[in-house]
Amino acid sequence: MGIDVPRLESVVGHREANTYSLMLVALLERGEPMTLAEIAERFEEAGVDDAESALRSLKRCKPGRPPVYREGDRYALDPHDDDLDLWAFRLDLRPPRVAPPPRSCAAPRAAGQ
Among 62, 17, 71, 89, which Cα is nearest to 26's? Predict the structure, then answer.
């Protein structure tokens, strides 16, 4: 993906952070499949919520939807899924791919000119 390995703590409280997006960050951080219980434990370590409440939230957030896939009881990321790249951008884990247009430096015109 071309991003630094994120830390879950760095996105807790982000305006785009929710249970599902935090799960994505936990999986990116670990770099290998995890069970929901392992993700919930990581949430507790990062101060998201206690593990029991986090596990309930993870089960309700539809954790097996792209870019996440499930193998048995473990969840993993598809690094080639465009949604993962979009989430990385939304969570400020990567910069925009296109620079914003330059702003005009012209001074505003005075009234009556």
Answer: 17
Q: Is residue 97 part of a domain?
A: no
- Give, for 55, the enclosing helix (H) or strand (E): helix 51-60
CA–CA gap between residue 55 and residue 100 (Å, rounded): 40
Q: What pairing do the DSSP bridges indicate for beta strands 68-71 and 74-77?
A: antiparallel
The domain tally of the chain equals: 1
Indicate whether 105 belongs to any domain: no
For residues 12 and 43, give the distance between their C-alpha atoms in angstroms, rounded to a whole number.
9
Stated as kind and residue range, the H or E segment containing 69 is: strand 68-71
Band (pLDDT 50/70/90 cuts) for residue 105 is: low
> Considering only CA atoms, which of 18, 33, 113 is closest in space to residue 79?
33
Residue 73 lies in domain: 8-90
pLDDT (tens digit per residue) in 11-47: 999 999 999 999 999 999 999 999 999 999 999 999 9
Domain with residue 20: its CATH number is 1.10.460.10
